[in-house]
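re the bet — no i am not wrong, look at it urself. input seq straight from the record:
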Amino acid sequence: MVSWLGEAKPVVDDLIVRVLKLRDELSLSTASRSGDASETSEVCEECEDKNASVWCEVCRDKFCDECAQSTHSSKRLRQHPLVPLEKRSEPLPKV
């Protein structure tokens, strides 16, 4: 075993804790900006900024109205059934 590793462990542990706290703070500040999705709502998979309102049965993703329209405007994707989130046929996977 490397002798310096024992001395570095508290420093590494502290760094990990700080990085995780910063990640959580960034996540909270992003969610709390005005007009953005709240922590308890489901966020659009495309823009990751607005509240999702529809679920694509084929893509299996949730979208805000704006992203659903722009993403599914092509001839091929227009065929995908978009349903309100509360009426989706399967639950969303946990992140």
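see?? The mean pLDDT is 77. told u. also The two ends are 37 Å apart (CA to CA). so pay up
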